[in-house]
Amino acid sequence: MKQTQMRWRLPAVCALWQLLMIILFGVFVRYDEEADAHWPQTRVSHNISSDIENDFYFRYPSFQDVHVMIFVGFGFLMTFLRKYGFGSVGFNFLISAFGIQWALLMQGWFHSLDPTDGKIKIGVESLINADFCVASALISFGAVLGKVSPVQLMIMTLFEMTLYAVDEYILLNVLGARDAGGSMVIHVFGAYFGLAVTRVLYRPRLEQSNNTSNYHSDLFAMIGTLFLWMFWPSFNSAISHHGDGQHRGAINTYCALAASVVTSIGLSSLLEKKGKINMVHVQNATLAGGVALGTAAEMMLSTYGALIVGFIASTVSTLGFIFLTPLLERYLKVQDTCGVHNLHGMPGIIGGIVGAITAAAATEEVYSAEGLRASFSNRDRMPSVQGGFQGAALCVSLAIGLVGGTIVGFILKLPLWGDPADENCFDDEVYWEVPEEPEPSHSIIISEVPKNSTINGTQAIEHPPTL
Amino acid sequence: MKQTQMRWRLPAVCALWQLLMIILFGVFVRYDEEADAHWPQTRVSHNISSDIENDFYFRYPSFQDVHVMIFVGFGFLMTFLRKYGFGSVGFNFLISAFGIQWALLMQGWFHSLDPTDGKIKIGVESLINADFCVASALISFGAVLGKVSPVQLMIMTLFEMTLYAVDEYILLNVLGARDAGGSMVIHVFGAYFGLAVTRVLYRPRLEQSNNTSNYHSDLFAMIGTLFLWMFWPSFNSAISHHGDGQHRGAINTYCALAASVVTSIGLSSLLEKKGKINMVHVQNATLAGGVALGTAAEMMLSTYGALIVGFIASTVSTLGFIFLTPLLERYLKVQDTCGVHNLHGMPGIIGGIVGAITAAAATEEVYSAEGLRASFSNRDRMPSVQGGFQGAALCVSLAIGLVGGTIVGFILKLPLWGDPADENCFDDEVYWEVPEEPEPSHSIIISEVPKNSTINGTQAIEHPPTL
Amino acid sequence: MKQTQMRWRLPAVCALWQLLMIILFGVFVRYDEEADAHWPQTRVSHNISSDIENDFYFRYPSFQDVHVMIFVGFGFLMTFLRKYGFGSVGFNFLISAFGIQWALLMQGWFHSLDPTDGKIKIGVESLINADFCVASALISFGAVLGKVSPVQLMIMTLFEMTLYAVDEYILLNVLGARDAGGSMVIHVFGAYFGLAVTRVLYRPRLEQSNNTSNYHSDLFAMIGTLFLWMFWPSFNSAISHHGDGQHRGAINTYCALAASVVTSIGLSSLLEKKGKINMVHVQNATLAGGVALGTAAEMMLSTYGALIVGFIASTVSTLGFIFLTPLLERYLKVQDTCGVHNLHGMPGIIGGIVGAITAAAATEEVYSAEGLRASFSNRDRMPSVQGGFQGAALCVSLAIGLVGGTIVGFILKLPLWGDPADENCFDDEVYWEVPEEPEPSHSIIISEVPKNSTINGTQAIEHPPTL
Q1: Taking every annotated instance into account, which residue ranges of this chain make up the domain Ammonium transporter AmtB-like (chains A, B, C) (predicted)?
Q2: How many structural domains comprise chain A?
């Protein structure tokens, strides 16, 4: 018998963690100069003509779009499971809110520590980066969805955020790679981390009967899909350079995503039974173009380049859902609930490669001399060298994800965290108060019923219809 | 027997189309100067003081609002059908993603072709215009919802986008009309195009039993309604002039929409059985004020003018749903699933007329001399002449919609495209893999039941399960 | 027998009101100078270098976020009731659209009347303030949800908007308090107003069987929760000072809300049966941090201060839902359907206190000399004096809410407005046309089934209910 009681474990983790955050924020976190009340003076001393040049106005609309992707996009995308809607939206909410606090600290220590006073200076860009950091944990959540306890999720998030900051530091600061929309840092890292975790947590006798959708749960999931899809141009351009960088990032992503929809729906119809379209592909593979542009969106990829990337990524993603996922489970014992390998893993790798190629192909003619330096980390590298570093960054991210996920998987395997029994997976009843459905007509007690319908009646009581 | 298999037809159209798009984008589409990496130089040469003056920051928040209207707004608005949620959201997704690519090209050739190099230069305004263009196809989709195959929808979209670009060129460039929120170009054109198509595709023996909503499908539809309603101020101001034009467009639309809600709910209660409010009116007629301000929102209509327009448009719209739609079906054989004639057709015509009157009534006193020229196409026309051209534009849009829709209707009538049989309309089963509901208890037939369960049975009838 | 027919009452109120609004807007409302067509001249005369400095671009993205909170956030938050979804979303829609028009006038007369011509000048900030004003009515709506008629709601809104403008005038103009996110003006006022109304309308024999959620209604409610949660940083910063004020307001709210989620989910698990998490707390208490930062968000509270406020507010809120709500109903006869006392009342009071303390603790060192004046109403008060006025403002808002709500409650008690009978509360059937569910198989209790009813059973199998 599994002990899934959360009464002491979950509150203890939440309380300790929140108090620790308060203390660490008190010691370390301060407003950056554009969010500080001294800003009017700073403006004058920096010769900035108007408040509208505060970074807030460059990035806040994109930040809010990213915020919607994290909380509604990822949250509702996972509600496709017919009995796990509370867990999908609710645990997504919990670990995101938990994670963004830790991300502000970790990313602050690595990226925005002010050397003059040892404080982390945060502004709107920090909020976007914290949301990005949490996105990787939500991707990993997708791989283990329905099979872990909230305490396991919080521990996973804690370690994953930490590793994310390290990975990001290596990629951006040490290797000087560009990855504004996070193909490598967010998607590859998050997906392979999650896949490694779910591999370690393999359940050979996993009960799959609740690992299904129903009509309305599929519609709820479309809310998630559409908000992810619509706001992905903001995601990929949110932290790009002001002006043409953000502008181009949005245009490229818009194009790639359009191609992904047409491609994945076409492929779904081609390969599914009777030519009917499968909602799993509509919900997921349509997004592959956004993932695959995470590195190159801000570059001079050109719009037809973006269409090609969207086309390839969604093709790979759809084929992955149809052919690869069953093989991964059978042969590699990877039980990937949401198919994150198809939506984030492979498209993320494509994104890293596309970024490397695009960087290597950069010319002064296309970018202008100063544009070239500005676009690629101000390091005066030859484009081909930059392309090599981009490729190295992809490999580093993949390796850190796999190794980190494996280690964390073993930590999560300790019998301390209240994970559900095999037969209770994908069911909200374990961790949530689920309202009883007041439907007296559904579970009729029958005293004399002909023999052959008894089975039917028993089933009715065991499996009340999910509405 | 209808042959509704999509296996070869849908994938073939998707694949061919997507490859064609890649080629055409490669040949024709480039970034405009504000999205290009040469922007820092351009900025200096154009004497622009800051990156914040990049058009991206003027229009991107509005673009994202429009984007949400297209994909979530239109998509979920149509989920009111209880068995057609996948088709509503999914086909909306497919044809929008398909259409925006073609719209970028068509509108580019007509409006933003750079004469120096023969390339289409795109920026954030192009993305908004592509979304606008697709909106007209989604309006037409509403007229034929549930009665056509995805291949028919893609063919309809292809032709409609093409005609849209022609219509838009005639209205804006030839006639010099203003139509920033598209009362004429989007709503009148899209609605009458769709109505003509559904007239040609008339099904005398259409099975209507699935052409109904249920409790939760009506709630899903409210998601669509509300996102359309909330973001309509962005829609009507997205491509207006910087500064006061956008500002005024948002204010006017906000006011008109508020009046529409109060008016249509009041009228619904007045005219429906027992004074109860009908969700159809709440979902649709509340939006009529936004449609009817599509032309005049950016003009100096004044806020009370906006309230009057919202009041009239939603009155006409609600009355249309109650009285006109049944007559249209009975006498004109127009089967208008979503009532687009009431939401887009008539309010669009009102919008065109309001625009003409407002333009004709413009004075230098109200607009200032330079404001008057800037507001109306810089053509040095007398306001009354401008009003006349606006009226002509309305007629042109109506005519192109009706004629184009009729022709396209006959193309869609060819027995090649896999349309559903009369008895399978409004049912996702035809084109979608629909999850089976695991509810064995729903269909029990009991032969002998004891007395004491009768109470239970009575309750069951009094409290039917809410779904 | 209650007479709940709305046929004449609701249409009459809507029509009269809308016509009155048209007249009053015609007499009083004009565009402010940044939305007026004379803006290009104004820009030159005010020495403004670019259209991007139009207030529209500072505030419009935040306005749209606030707009989503009002219509989708509040609307869907209340759909948790399984049979009151239409009423929740629909009445929310009606009274908001009705209220924003009146708010533009009332707030205009008090705050933006141009003394030179006696006209109200509106711009984007006016739209935000109108939405804010309506938020207080929606909070009160939460207290009486399911127990009143739409006519009662409109009358309540009318009086409450009026009082809101008076309260706001006293707080901001007379007392010189700061309350940019409305802890006092919106939340305390709205909550205690609503609680007083529901106290006066106490129903000793209220039928509670429909005052429950089901699985999908809880998921719909999460749409509301998440949009409120995500966009609260925009709410608390929407009308703050340009630049650092808005920037800081968003950062502080972001932090406080993150702490609230972790805290309330932890507490829910600690205190609920078997350690399971309760969706009521996830839907509501997670938002308490946003409410409690309504006054101090724009101040130099520091991020750890924001975390502490979020932690305390959500603790109080969750404890309130578990322990206080039942006591309020039993001993004070306050039937608070949505628990607004827990989400808006107590956290709002905390917000007022936090604002007073933060204002009193302000120093020139932290704010700079000019920052201090600018942040606190330009009145040259000592910080401690300002703190005192903040505290007085809180008391005034509480008092006006309680007294006003009591008076309005007695008005609503007049037997004229068509309120529902005790046994019909929380049920859409009273005021809405609810679609019949086509589910012949759901409520069958058959003692001896004759041969011909087999057809019924067959139908049941042919048309399984769509959920």
Answers
A1: 54-429
A2: 1
